[in-house]
Amino acid sequence: MATYYGTYGQKVQYLASDPSDPQVGQVWYNSTSATLKVRSVTTSGTWATGGNLSNGGRYGMGVAGTQTATLGFAGYGPVPGTTNSNKTESYNGTSWTNLNNFNSARYLLGSFGTQTAAIGAGGYFYPGGAQSATESWNGSSWTTVNALPTGRYNGGSAGTQTAGIYSGGNPPSNLVTNSSQLYDGTNWTNASNLNVSRGEVSGAGTQTASLAIGGYNPPTSPGTYITTTESYNGTSWTTLPATLNTGRGSAGTSGDQTSAIIFGGGNAGGPTAFLTATEIWNGSTWTSNPTGLIQKRSNLPKGPAGTTSAGIAVGGYNPPSSPITPATTEEWTGPGVGQTKTVTVS
Amino acid sequence: MAYKYCVAECWGKGFITHSDSSKYQVSGFPGNVWQIPANNQDANLWVNKVAGSWKTKAEAQAIVDVEVTAAQAAWDALPDEQKQQPFNRQRPTAIVLE
Q: Which B positions 42-61 lie with beta carbon below 8 A of chain A?
């Protein structure tokens, strides 16, 4: 009979606890849990439930940071109703904690930065309409800083607190724009325009290496859900040959210009309007992940949080989900990430 | 694909893990209704883990329908102006479980 030692030249380790840094392919027996374990890598991405938002579900939130150090703020919810939110919460990978409020409640805003240094820009306030105000977060409180040139919501955003970009979106007319602005930590300046005007666009990356993904144009029925991806190099936008497999607007993103994911969003009217579908960008093509979000959700934050390996979906909108604005968050683990699995022998 | 249904309250982190998701797809619906593939031992164990209450498809559909009806009534009660604000324009629509 073949043995593990005979096949691989090594014995299975007998350990009281899992090793702290197991190598891919390593096999061991955990004597405490009486389980045989192996270190492998994920072959596709998966979503798991994360902690629930502490202020209830909201859609159109701002978000910044990483999967285990996330900042979530503003938004709208619960709906139906009129609740422009000014709540700010931080996530530590397990639970959400309340922080000092955003100064001016709004939703569908641009957002970028980290958990301790972030920007929230533009957005929509019901019943006031498109907003131009910008606020800066220093890790403990929000300060109103220089506003966008014009009010705008549903633009894609990316970057850091001192080097951000906000592109496309819906101006006060509720039509769509191709306008892009850069933020340097103090002022907004005009950048070159997107090639394709769009609202509900999703952003990823940095100010000088960003993506504008998908979106909706025009915002009138039936409209067109866009599959186009554009990249920005610090000077101009280029329409990339690769397109999304599923055109969508109001989707969430994680990652950067060369490695990103897009998830959820909406792409039609009726019951199929809201998506779970997740796609992975490798810098040249979009690939559909075999499985999507656990819950359908649209109107996710349009600025990125997390990475292609470890992303996060916060809030969103899914009529008639219960609640309509899900308080649940979902955490993404991408393909190629190491994972410890228990070997089942029957 | 055939599915089974249960009702369970999502407590957040750990409710559905990456290990769960790598073995089968759990889909969430209104009313804390969760859909899992039928004839999947791991999925059955997940229902036990989350203390889920098994529902027939008809029972699960009824729970979803109650939520949909309530959401539609709430939307209908909104002022017309509010129905026109971004992303509140669509009356909640029925969900038919597979």
A: none
- Which residues are bridge partners to A182 per DSSP? A165, A189
d(CA A346, CA A288): 33
ipTM of the shown complex? 0.87
CA distance B66 to chain A (A): 10
**Token duo for residue B34:** 């969760």
Q: Is domain A46-333 classified as CATH 3.40.50.720?
A: no
Say if B27 is an interface residue toward chain A (CB within 8 Å): yes
- CATH 2.120.10.80 residue ranges in chain A? 46-333
Task: Using CB atoms, pick whichever of A50, A59, A294 lies closest to residue B26.
Answer: A294
Location of structure tokens 């105000």: A133
What Cα–Cα distance (Å) separates residue A81 from each residue in A122, A129, A243, B73, B79? 21, 16, 36, 12, 10
- Give the C-alpha separation, B32 to B10, whole Å: 7
CA distance A147 to A113: 17
Task: Indicate the pTM of the whole model.
Answer: 0.90
Distance from CA of A22 to the nearest CA of B (A): 17
Q: pLDDT digits over A240-255, tens only?
A: 999 999 999 999 999 9
